[in-house]
Amino acid sequence: MKTPFVTLEQLHKIIKEHPTPFHLYDERGIRENARNLHKAFSWNKGFREYFAVKATPNPYIMRILQEEGCGFDCASYAELVLAEKVGSKDVMFSSNVTPDEDFILAYNNGAIINLDDFTHIEILDKLCGIPEVISCRYNSGGDFKTDETGNVMDVPGEAKYGFTRAQIIDGFKILKAKGAKRFGIHAFLASNTQTEDYYPVLAGMMFELAVEIKEKAGVEISFVNLSGGVGVNYLPDKSSQDIFKIGQGVKAQFERIMHPAGLENCAIYTELGRYMLAPYGHLITKALRYKNIYREYIGVDACACDLMRPALYKAYHHITVAGKENAPHDKVYDVTGGLCENNDKFAIQRPLPEIKVGENGDILIIHDTGAHGHSMGYNYNGKLRSAEILLTENGRFKLIRRAETVADYFRTLDFSGDYRF
Ligand SMILES: *Cc1c(COP(=O)(O)O)cnc(C)c1O
Asked: Which of 93, 200, 284, 399 is the most exposed place for a label (fewest CB within 10 A)?
């Protein structure tokens, strides 16, 4: 079962000050989860999580994670600026199709640059020179499976990222000749994985690559970045992954492959986004309208602009009707937003308690929206992006991003009245 981290009473208090819809984040959950991740990898002296900023690019959330010992993984100019504004010196820059100005800012800010392509070695060298610390992203090609019988999890051979095996070995020879001193490898081969084997299998592959790079390029790999991809369970009836099992699985591979190769001082890095935040965010929305045609519909004041995953991936997000947690789920609704797009549905044919609509309508809690939720928001149909609110450890709440206004939406347009061109 999925239990909200907020009560109806707390929600009433928040809504009095900040109208729905809004994303709500749970400071306590974020901190506890980050501490467990660090415990699970405490066997590795250099372990570091670089939170994938794109999942939840909000300075308050980033500050909490920074206090828990995380750095930041950025992929664009604005994300680099955000990490700088939060005061972090601990930045991984894992971008692709990287513009010159992004490389220059990453270099000037002292971020670890994780090159996405062989040609970027020369581009970076010409722009800034090769920094002492450098990382390369690996693409293993083909299919990626967690074991011989396992399902294909993703198809790196069709993915735009990274160096081939031959390129990465050549690349490290060149980087070494150009003066780099500390080297890392990175790979991100599958997203939202649902097995505790993903990191261990990926780690095994990367550790073997590190050994091969040592032998063939004469370069000692100082860090292996397992990147993101550890999933969360969006469904209510499945338990979440055991991060301690994942940590132990990576440790076993480390001892098997890295110790005999004399690479036991290598650090493990991660760039988790979803795992760090998804369960600790709710999208809070009010039921506005009821409609009964061939199906029964509940229309809410949030829409796909606030949470794109259901429209984009047909993703399941659990819904709790606040205060009706124990009521019988004896109605079946489609829960929709108001976009002129029929895929704007948070739930399809979902059993739910009877929902009251209107000014005093029920409050719906959409679960697991803390990562890739608000950040994927957009403005289609002139919908304004919602506020973000933090539920603090002591039970108070704080507005950490105000809702957009119509003026924000029009800010880039010219209404001077002179429309000649
Ligand atoms: C998106 C992304 C992540 C985070 O992925 P999650 O699935 O949220 O863990 C990490 N690293 C890179 C390079 C990414 O693009």
From this structure: 399
